[in-house]
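Support reply, case 0932

Customer input (verbatim):
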Amino acid sequence: MIEVEGLRKRFGSQLALQEVDFMVPGGEIFGFIGPNGAGKTTTIRILATLALPDSGTATIGGVPVAEDPHAVRELIGYMPDFFGVYDRLTSIEYLEFYAACHGLPHRRRRAVAHELLELVDLGGRADDQVDTLSRGMKQRLCLARALVHDPQVLLLDEPASGLDPRARIEMRELIRELRRMGKTILVSSHILPELEELCTWVGFIDAGRMVAAGPISDVRNQVLTGRRLRVEVVNADEVKLLAARDQIEDRRGVISVDLVEDGLEVAVEDTFQDQDLLIELVRAGVAVRSFARVTGDLSEAFMRLTSQSPAPPASPGRVEPAP
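Our regenerated output:
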């Protein structure tokens, strides 16, 4: 549904995007992840027809974004990270106004607005002025605004920014519901645990380059190679932890042993038998409180794949997405 190939964009001397490549199949939720300034918003604005790339192509539903922006705007709903609302309008008037902007027939506008308010759980606030709504309610109203013309694709730039935990959960469930309705969704966020629960595909961008992209399980397996075990030691102090580390760090199959709070974190080869490590620690007199496998997550993948270095002025070779 979304295909990006060789996308490149420069702002003055700063190369914001360098040969960006990724794709989002229809019906998926794609988490777009990267540090501040990595190029997420620039990419989304190009997809939303609000900026032109210097080179490369982007298509949505088979329509080239740069060649036919009007057709693309009929296919997409865009929710920017910063948005304005017309405070003096009521919620229903606000959606009717945008329905008119998208050319909906006059007789359909109020019905569509009511349907969308019910969808985003604002049915009881239809006649309330927008300036009386909480931030979370305004976020949901702006998502409803992006849906007035029933687009196939949603581009959501930090939709949970500034929301309290309850409002974030409501936004997450709403995005899931939109996927069940057949929407293809690209969402950027810095709240990685929520993206992990929500997304089916992910893409990591760093310094203007895609460093990994694909189904979330494939990317996680590609980045987080090997396995890690967490060993918590009773009454752990540095002497006990160093002794425990010395006992196991030279064992075949152990890649590394790191001291962590109250215990050890052990990286092992995929074929390593976990129980053998536990047996050896117990035999050596190490008082083990807990012993468990550490599951890699998007936060760890983010730390491994990204850096804080600025984008370089020149473009290196293209990084292919994960298969």
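We compared this against your earlier run and they match. Two observations from our side: Residues 309-323 have pLDDT under 50 and may be disordered. The longest strand covers residues 14-24. Please reopen the case if you see a mismatch on your end.
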